[in-house]
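Example 3.2
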Amino acid sequence: MSAATAVTTTVPEFRAAGTDLSERRRSGVSCGPIIDLDAGPDMLGIDWAADGSARIGALTAIAAIASDRRIAQAYPGLAAAAQGLATPQIRQLATLGGNLAQRSRCWYFRNPQIACLKKGGSDCPARSGNHLYHVAFDLGPCVAPHPSTMAMALLAYDASVSTGYRRGLSIPELLGDGSNGSADNLLGTSERIERIELPAPLAGERALYKRAISRTHAEWPLVEICVRAVLSGGSFQQIHICAGGIAPVPLRLTACEAALRGKPADAATIAQAAELATSGARPLPMTGYKLDLLKGLVRDVVERITA
C-alpha cells in the first residue's frame, strides 16, 4: 500500500501533553486537526473533600499522582500503578485523562499502511496475525488489550469520570464492555475527560499493584492487577481484584472476589480463588500464557496483601 492510500485517523483530537498523540502523528496514523486543552481549575491538581474522597483533574500529571503522599496513603494501589507505568520522563508529562483516553497499542493499529477496525477497516488483522501480546479474554471483534493502567486501577477503586457533557461515569461506562471493536472508549467526538472522582477509602483497607512484564524497564504489562482488601478476624470482609492487559477493557475478577469474600485469609483459600481468575477466559492461539501469569499474579498479590 502506498503512502497515498495509507490508513489514517483524520478526526479532530484533543491534545494535553501529547505523549501518545505525538507518536501517532509522527508515524502518520493520526493526521486530523488538534484541539489543545487549557488547564482550567477543574482539570488540574488533586482536591480533597471532608469525607476523605478525592477529585483529580484530568490534566494532572501521572508523576504528581505517583508522588503524592496523601494519594499513597488513601489509594496505595493507584499510586503504585502510577509509579509503575512508562518512564520517569513520560510520567512527568503524561496526564491522567490522557492515560484513560489513549489509543490502542496494537502494532496493526499503529501501522499507517494497515487497515483495522479502529481505523474504519472491516476486520481485526491481529486476530489471524501476530497477537502474542493481545487478549486472553476475547470479548469482541478487536483483540487488542486496553492500554490504560490507570483505568484498571481506577476500576478497583470504583472511581467515576466526569466530562464536559456527563458526570459520574463509571470506568465501564467510559470504556464499554469490549464488544465495540471500533473505539477505545465511548467518548463523543467533542467530549473530553475533565476530572476523576474517587470515593473515600474504606476503614482499614489495604491495596497492592503488580505487573508481569517481558523486560525490566519501560515495558507495557503483559498482565497487571490491582487488589484492594479489608481484612477482619482473619477473613476477607471486602475484596476487589481488577486486571489489565488481558481484555479489550479492564476487568473485575468477580469469581475470585466471590471465592474470597467472607472466607479465611489463608493459603488454601487464596490458592483456590486464584484458580478462578481465568473464569470466562477465551485465549487466542498465542495468548494462553497470559492465563498462567494472571493466576500467578492473583495468588502472589493476595497473599502479600494478607501479610
